[in-house]
Write a structure and sequence with these properties.
The chain is mainly beta. The protein has 2 helices and 8 strands; from the N terminus they run αββββββββα. It has one domain: Beta Barrel (Porin), CATH 2.40.160. Strands 1, 2, 3, 4, 5, 6, 7 and 8 form an 8-stranded antiparallel beta sheet that branches. A hairpin with a 4-residue loop joins strand 1 and strand 2.
Length: 145
């Protein structure tokens, strides 16, 4: 638990320094994984690069069967995506893209003697779709009106 608190502190410690600078955005993700994302909008106004840091299994499914053991707690996730975005209204965009994700989480095997902790890491493909709302006072929405 101390490690999770430290990671949250590191993730959210310097948010204000880059918030909504030219071509940059910081946001949160709700889902699995839940966490923080940082985006950089490319100069062509059609693409962006996104990096995510978060936890999976923290809200939904912290416990569950895995191989010949079970998960008991949350894991950490890091991902990077290349995405396309399209304007739907003056303040609303849709986006979609692909990338890679790295995950790390421990699972536990129980035998007659005790419980053994085994690290489980993964690397795989990732797809993402969503909507993004820009506040009317934001730089992006002012430049488009």
């Amino acid at each position: 638990m101390k490690k999770l608190c430290l990671l949250f502190l590191l993730m959210f410690g310097g948010l204000t320094s880059y918030s909504q600078e030219k071509g940059w955005a910081i946001g949160g993700k709700i889902g699995d994984p839940i966490g923080l994302n940082i985006r950089h909008y490319l100069n062509n106004d059609k693409n962006l690069v996104e990096v995510n840091v978060g936890f999976y299994g923290a809200i939904w499914g912290a416990r569950g069967n895995y191989k010949d053991g079970a998960f008991d707690g949350a894991g950490v996730s890091f991902s990077g995506l290349y995405m396309w975005h399209n304007e739907m209204t003056s303040n609303l965009k849709n986006y979609y893209g692909f990338g890679v994700q790295f995950t790390s989480r421990n699972y536990y095997k129980t035998d007659g003697v005790g419980r053994t902790e085994i690290p489980a890491t993964g690397l795989g493909g990732l797809g993402q779709v969503g909507l993004e709302y820009f506040l009317p006072s934001s730089r992006w929405s002012r430049s488009k009106t």
